Amino acid sequence: MSNTPIIESKAITIRFGGHVAVNEVSLQIEPFKVKSIIGPNGAGKTTFFNLVSGEYKATSGSVLFKGKDITHLDPADRCKLGIGRSFQLTNIFPTLTVLENVRLSVQSRENVGFDFWRNFRHKYAHLEDEAYDILKSVLMDAKWHDEASNLTHGEQRKLEIAMLLALKPEVMLLDEPTAGMSIEEVPAILDIIKEIKSRSDKTIILVEHKFDMIMAVSDSIAVLQEGCLIANDTPQAIASNEQVRAAYLGGGMKSG
Ligand SMILES: Nc1ncnc2c1ncn2[C@@H]1O[C@H](COP(=O)(O)OP(=O)(O)OP(=O)(O)O)[C@@H](O)[C@H]1O
Ligand SMILES: [Mg+2]
Q1: Which of 89, 115, 116, 255 is at 20 to 30 A from 211, Cα to Cα?
Q2: In angstroms, what is the span from residue 99 Cα to ligand 2's centroid?
Q3: Pairwise CA distance, residues 59 & 126, whole Å
């Protein structure tokens, strides 16, 4: 069983009107590895994520989780199975503190409810302890008491990752975790991904445009172009693949 992919798409396809955004993509994701998905703008990367997380329903094809067909499960059920998708910024509660935001994620995992009027300090001390430990793991513990709305953009992205970690997903779908960050903030995200990877208990599927970062963390890289999978190989092989260079890099590698 150890060679069963944790996620597998079989000829997964989605059309929007006449446009085929993801076109018969068959991809196996090995457990406990970092798989990156790259490709030009509009190639279908986010759409592929939406098909894996259940936000979009496939026109045809299927998605498997540990060999089981999950194509017809909704996002909440896929999340319960352990497929975690990074929160969009709108999912952060801006007026709550950093710790409170993470604690709410821990709470939603434990299913103990969202009763804001209870005395959390006594009843939910263990949830706060866990939330604090998660903040430490993403190097955000110093900010635990800050209001989320006061964080920099980069810190908010780290908070999103912390909130995702709080759900204890087996698979983490990270869609451009460094988008909109300043150059100085990028290494912190890279370190967090490396740290999660070093624990070898999660599978990460990463979409990123920063090629240096992709090369630094990926075990393997899939390349999408106009909805089609055009390559799926080791980082080294991808970096020297002429078709990929032509399609994605436009002759010059983006770095950052
Ligand atoms: N809900 C939708 N309705 C119509 N078209 C959509 C929808 N979602 C995605 N698309 C289209 O599917 C194609 C792929 O978009 P997608 O967002 O997956 O690209 P991407 O590879 O993530 O690009 P980027 O690097 O810019 O984030 C685009 O042409 C997009 O306009
Ligand atoms: Mg996208």
Answers
A1: 89
A2: 29
A3: 44
Distance, CA of 232 to CA of 10 (rounded, Å):
15
Q: What does the alpha-carbon distance between residue 205 and residue 49 come to, in Å, rounded to a whole number?
A: 9
Nearest residue (by CA) to ligand 1, atom 2, is: 16
Q: Which CATH architecture has domain 1-82+170-256?
A: 3-Layer(aba) Sandwich (3.40)
How is residue 184 written in tokens?
Answer: 């100085």
Could you tell me how far CA 229 lies from the centroid of its own chain? 19
**Which of 12, 13, 14, 16 gets mutated to test ligand 1 (max ligand atoms within 8 A of its CB)?**
16
37 CB within 6 A, ligand 1: no
Q: Is the pTM of this model over 0.85?
A: yes
**Whether the CB of 157 sits within 6 Å of ligand 1:** no
Crossing angle, helix 125-137 and helix 153-165, to 10 degrees?
120
Predicted confidence (pLDDT) per residue in 163-210, tens digit? 999 999 999 999 999 988 888 889 989 999 999 999 999 999 999 989
Query: Using CA atoms, how far apart are residues 79 and 85, in angstroms rounded to an integer?
Result: 8
User: Is the CB of 21 within 6 Å of ligand 1?
Assistant: yes
H-assigned helices in 65-209 = 75-81, 98-110, 120-123, 125-137, 153-165, 186-198
46 by DSSP, 3-state: which? helix
Ligand with the closest atom to the CA of 48 = 1
Q: Where are the domains of the chain?
A: 1-82+170-256, 88-168
